[in-house]
Amino acid sequence: MFRIFILITTMSVAAVAAYGQHHDDEAEAIPLLYNEPLPHDSLKRVLHDMGKFEGHLRTFFMNTANQKNNPDYYALAAGGGLAYYSPVIKHFQVGISGFIIYNLSSSDLGPDNRYELGLFDAEDPDNHEDLDRLENLYLRYYFNSHRRSFVQLGKFHISTPLMNLQDTRMRPNIQEGLWAEFKDWEKLKLRGGWLWSTTPRSTVEWYGIGESVGIYGNGTAVNGEPAEYEGHIDSKRILIANAEWEPVKNVNYQYWNYHVDNLFNVALQKLEVKKRYSRKTWLAGFQYIWQTSISEAGLATENQYISPDEESHVLSGRVAFTNNGNEQGWSLNYSRITSHGRFLFPREWGTETLYTYNNRERNEGAGDLHAVMLEHTRHLDKDRRVFFRGRAGVFKLPDVTNARLNKYSMPSYYHLTLQANYKFAGYLKGLETQMLYTYKGNLDNENEVQPISMHNKTQMHHFGLRMDYYF
User: In DSSP terms, which residues pair with 396 in a beta bridge?
Assistant: First the structure.
């Protein structure tokens, strides 16, 4: 363990340069639009002087300790790359970035590994060095000088409730397609696009939409047999539409629709209301997801990602308050997936943002689920450089043998997560670190659960240490 600590410390200082998703809003990193003539004598100088380069170093250590005779795992990764954003000329802009990763040290990361292998290439566990990929490569057009509304074509990242970065490994998800956002109205925002390929996190290749489904594992088919749908999905595109409306101050309503041809349609609605009393801000939130299959019959049951007649209903609610004086907040959260069917959304495309989401686990693939979670967040200093989050939840699932409602044979479990973030200042400004500890304990009778259903799922400790340097 001491050797691992030395490697982490060394690589945090000496990792190679790279680009990362540092900004919540990528537009913040982009030079301002200009229309006046520039005192430059060539296009090359305009692109160099008015454009913007960004770099990112990331070092990530993970360790999972399982119970009894189940193997433990560890991995240490480091990577880097660069990004370039051109100036906005005549409302047009180009963005490009790439990244490279190295496996510095790791245990044997076999097919049953759920976490550490995600730092590298899930399709090739033995690949330790050839882990580079092109990420952003897009042409963007801004409709006006405010740069709030745009349309873009190419490779880029998006952030939606279901299809998102899921940036908790070395690299995030990137999509390819056509995407537009309209944000010039005071109370209404519109977003949407047509996506035709993706490079999921934990991969280095680009895949068609259907090709990407199943890379992370196939689970169990509804008939109880091992699912084998990877390579059998005939889906070419994802259509996403969103409307976000704020009719009055502190009331936010969102509607999202995800249409995946030959697979399913998902409609998601989210309503949040805030109210301030004295020094506290209260929030009430509600989400509802309705999924229907549009998969055609013809494939064997084991080759189906979703059954032709399958549907699911998901409800999630939150009551929270924040003490505005010290950024301290508490929330009580509940989610319910009904027994109509399993909620399915390919894990290769993102993480579901239900209010009960907890790090290192998700409830995609489950039906007839009850989940309750308590969350606490706070900044521990006046400068807001030290952030803490604690989450504790109970997740009740159907029996692991109920393939119709438990795709990944996940036992019922309780889940504790402690997370601490620190942002450096002064000479080391740009350096950020995150430490994460999580424990998942089994709620089912262990004598009634096969060891394979607990391995790397429950009765396990997991530790992660991530260090990022942005420049």
Answer: 370
Query: What letter represents residue 218's amino acid?
Result: N
**Minimal CA–CA distance to 258: which of 290, 232, 303, 213?**
290
**DSSP strand pairing (238-245 vs 174-182):** unpaired
Mean pLDDT of 372-390: 94
Q: Is the pLDDT of residue 12 over 90?
A: no
Query: Out of 8-22, 83-97, 252-266, 345-359, which region has the weakest mean confidence (pLDDT)?
Result: 8-22
- Candidates 335, 333, 338; CA nearest to 319 is 333
Identity of the amino acid at 382: K
Residue 177 tokens read as 């397609």
| Token pair of 146 as six digits | 């405010």
Cα→Cα distances 378→165, 387, 423, Å? 24, 6, 14
**Is residue 359 scored above 50 in pLDDT?**
yes
Spatial separation of the C-alpha atoms in residues 395 and 355, rounded to whole Å? 13
**Which 8-state DSSP code applies to residue 296?**
P
E strands in 86-237: 92-106, 131-142, 150-156, 174-182, 188-199, 207-208
Q: List the structure tokens of 144.
A: 């006006």
pLDDT at residue 185 greater than cutoff 90: yes
Q: How far apart are CA 235 and CA 209, in angstroms?
A: 6
pLDDT at residue 226 in the model: 95
